[in-house]
Design goal:
Number of domains: 1
Oligomer: single chain
Strand order of the largest sheet: 3-10-9-6-7-8
CATH architecture: 3-Layer(aba) Sandwich
CATH superfamily: Glutaredoxin
Shape: globular
Largest sheet: 6 strands, mixed
CATH topology: Glutaredoxin
Radius of gyration: 15 Å
Distance between the termini: 30 Å
Helix content: 25-40%
């Protein structure tokens, strides 16, 4: 069975070997992890929260999302499916968090698509900027110490079993 490894600009890379995800993601890990800045974000209720106070002591998959990017929507749905899989496994040590720059459209999209992931707003783009990300769709993986382990700029199917295995290995 052929799997979609990643999609970018309406083009996909396919593979007959799902294990390529693990190899592909491993190659993109940073040789020198660094601590992300403690930047203020906005919660759904409009109150400010600092990044370090979100998902304390959790391994974090940080998704930068925009409603106007089709690839971002695809990636969001696969991350939502991954979170559901983690919940079924009773794994509460890995947290998937979405960062957007605009609340109303994003919240509406989440409701329509039944996305159950946490949503925070990076209104000024400071978190994206501090991580060297120019625009969504991007995912950043952080360990429990808020150190950046890897940045994934293409759009991936995060609900793939080999990705779950890769993430669980990193989060140990």
């Amino acid at each position: 069975m052929t799997k979609t490894l990643f999609a970018e600009n309406n083009a996909s890379v396919h593979s007959d070997n799902a294990a390529n995800y693990k190899e592909l993601f491993s190659k993109q890990l940073l040789k020198q992890p660094y601590v992300v800045k403690n930047i203020p974000l906005l919660q759904k209720n409009g109150k400010e929260i600092y990044f370090y106070n979100i998902a304390k002591d959790k391994f974090i998959i940080l998704n930068f999302f925009a409603t106007w990017i089709p690839e971002s929507k695809y990636q969001l749905k696969s991350l939502n499916a991954l979170q559901e899989k983690l919940a079924m496994m009773k794994n509460d040590q890995i947290k998937i968090i979405n960062i957007a720059q605009e609340f109303a459209k994003t919240a509406e999209y989440f409701a329509v698509e039944k996305i159950k992931l946490d949503l925070y707003i990076d209104a000024n783009g400071l978190l994206m900027q501090s991580l060297g990300i120019n625009m969504p769709s991007a995912v950043v993986i952080l360990n429990k110490n808020k150190e950046v382990l890897g940045k994934y700029i293409n759009t991936y199917d995060w609900n793939e079993d080999s990705i779950l295995e890769f993430i669980q290995g990193l989060s140990q």
